[in-house]
């Protein structure tokens, strides 16, 4: 695990854009295509805007989300809306996007459709995750009924529906094995409180207490943490 610290979020965003763009470009040169998994929230907005302006061969890049709220893509709570308005603009408007939301009424009813869509993407080039104050990542929440299935490395599921205990809206989340099916994972976090959570996560082993430990304490996929105040 590689921990990279920055003095401010602007410096982090610039470094993260350069790193991700390099990895995507390498994949396009080697394989003809690349894939990027991103997360929602306020933290990645600056990164999204900078990356959207980078002169990549975007028509050969596919973007998707690590998790999504089961709301219409026009809803302010939608991660897809966030990505479309902040990343899939400028030069990045040419990228393809795989949605984690379908027309199904519930996330459970939509699992099969989203699972099939994700199965077409193969191994991801880069996965960028966040981390909640409760130690969750993607929508793998401590205490949720879906957590054991989501963390099961023997599961053949790419995604699963999640009902958070303390957050609104049903979710669709990638499973741990699907997230680890990447060439590289980056955890993007900001703030002193997130460093406290990270230190607690690194100090323990119980994955159900802090699900992010499932990403931090594994050797299958290289992990870097980009942090700033």
Helix and strand run: EHEHEEHEHEHEEHEHHE
Q: What is the CA-based Rg, rounded? A: 16 Å
Q: Give the C-level CATH assignment.
A: Alpha Beta
Quantity of strands, as a count: 10
In CATH terms, what is the fold-level topology?
Answer: Rossmann fold
How much of the residues is beta strand, in percent?
A: 15-25%
Q: Terminal Cα separation, in Å?
A: 20 Å
**Arithmetic mean of pLDDT:** 97
How would you sum up the global shape? globular
Task: Count the DSSP helices.
Answer: 8
Low-confidence stretches: none
Main sheet makeup: 7 strands, parallel
Determine the fraction of residues in helical runs and give it as a percent range: 25-40%
Total domains, how many? 1
Largest sheet: spatial strand order: 1-10-9-6-2-3-5
* Gross CATH architecture: 3-Layer(aba) Sandwich
Structural class assignment: alpha/beta
Descriptive notes:
A seven-stranded parallel beta sheet has the order 1-10-9-6-2-3-5, sandwiched between helices. Helix 1 packs across helix 2 (45-52). The radius of gyration is 16 Å and the shape is globular. The model has no long low-confidence stretch (mean pLDDT 97). The two termini are 20 Å apart. It has one domain (2-228): Rossmann fold (3-Layer(aba) Sandwich). The protein has eight helices and ten strands. Helices cover 34% and strands 20% of the residues. The relative contact order is 0.18. The protein is of the alpha/beta class and 229 residues long. The longest helix is centred in the first third of the chain and has 23 residues, at 9-31. Strand 2 (34-38), helix 2 and strand 3 (61-65) form a beta-alpha-beta unit.
């Amino acid at each position: 695990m590689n921990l990279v610290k920055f003095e401010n979020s602007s410096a982090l965003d610039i470094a993260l854009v350069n790193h991700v763009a390099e990895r995507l470009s390498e994949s396009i040169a080697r394989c003809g295509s690349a894939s990027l998994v991103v997360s929602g929230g306020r933290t990645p907005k600056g990164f999204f805007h900078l990356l959207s302006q980078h002169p990549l061969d975007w028509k050969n890049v596919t973007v998707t989300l690590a998790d999504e709220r089961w709301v219409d893509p026009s809803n302010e709570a939608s991660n897809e809306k966030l990505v479309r308005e902040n990343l899939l603009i400028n030069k990045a408007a040419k990228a393809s996007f795989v949605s984690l939301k379908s027309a199904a009424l519930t996330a459970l009813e939509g699992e099969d459709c989203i699972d099939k869509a994700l199965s077409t993407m193969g191994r991801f080039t880069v996965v960028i995750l966040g981390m909640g104050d409760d130690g969750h990542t993607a929508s793998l929440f401590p205490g949720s009924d879906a957590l054991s299935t989501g963390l099961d490395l023997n599961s053949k599921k790419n995604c699963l529906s999640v009902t958070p205990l303390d957050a609104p809206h049903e979710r669709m989340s990638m499973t741990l094995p699907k997230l680890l099916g990447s060439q590289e994972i980056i955890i993007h976090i900001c703030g002193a409180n997130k460093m406290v959570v990270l230190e607690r996560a690194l100090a323990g082993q119980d994955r159900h207490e802090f699900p992010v430990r499932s990403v931090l304490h594994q050797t299958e996929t290289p992990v870097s943490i980009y942090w700033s105040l």
